[in-house]
Design a protein that fits this description.
It is an enzyme of class 5 (isomerase). 32% of the residues lie in helices and 16% in strands. The protein is built from 5 helices and 6 strands, in the order βαβαβααβαββ.
């Protein structure tokens, strides 16, 4: 049976300096590095045989640095994959949250719209989900039944879960999985070959960090 361990990257500079997320490429904070080390400590206890896992990460700094710290602790080499990035925010990348609020494309309605493009040159939600699903299909096939450890972003992580649950795009209009910084999620298959969400957004490895 396959296990997929998903980790949302740890605290990044964009969380504390009013920068937008998406493809804005910011490094981890000192706290984020401490959080990543704690995740590595936890995984050392939970992963019995590291060689059973292929380790993938988004290539954006905040995810790649989280993965590097974890990889050094559990002795796994990280494979960076651009397909695991957060949603492409187009011209908002590198801009402040204030700039993003003032320059996003107006919504046509108040509900969730799969084909809404928030920023010029960015992805719609449908395009984002399609990219994540295609990326995971390629990784899944490449690793041929092996276990996966993946460090990625909040939106991407939620869409990986939706991919695992075989959601058609229309399903994500009314459902979303909202994880948090450094959270660990575990997916698996049971004896009936059903895809299972075993654990979602576990942050029990974090004490009160200052």
């Amino acid at each position: 049976m396959r296990n997929i361990i998903l980790i949302q990257h740890c605290q990044s500079e964009h969380h504390i300096n009013n920068m937008s997320g998406g493809w804005t490429d910011t490094p981890l904070t000192d706290l984020g590095r401490k959080q990543a080390k704690l995740i590595g400590d936890k995984l050392k206890e939970e992963i019995v045989d590291n060689n059973e896992y292929a380790f993938y990460s988004s290539d954006l700094l905040r995810a790649a640095q989280t993965a590097e710290i974890i990889g050094n602790q559990i002795n796994l080499k990280v494979i960076k994959n651009k397909g695991l990035r957060e949603i492409n925010t187009g011209i908002a990348a590198g801009k402040t949250k204030d700039w993003a609020r003032e320059n996003r494309i107006p919504r046509k309605n108040s509900g969730f719209d799969l084909d809404y493009q928030e920023f010029k040159d960015g992805e719609t939600w449908r395009e984002f989900y399609s990219r994540v699903c295609s990326c995971m299909d390629r990784i899944y096939e490449m690793e041929k039944g092996g276990n996966l450890l993946i460090v990625t972003h909040g939106g991407t992580l939620g869409y990986i879960i939706a991919w695992w649950m075989k959601f058609e795009p229309k399903r994500i209009v009314n459902a979303y999985f909202s994880s948090s910084v450094g959270g660990i999620t575990v997916l698996s298959q049971n004896s009936f070959q059903q895809n299972v969400l075993n654990k979602f957004n576990d942050t029990s490895h974090f004490p009160l960090l200052n």
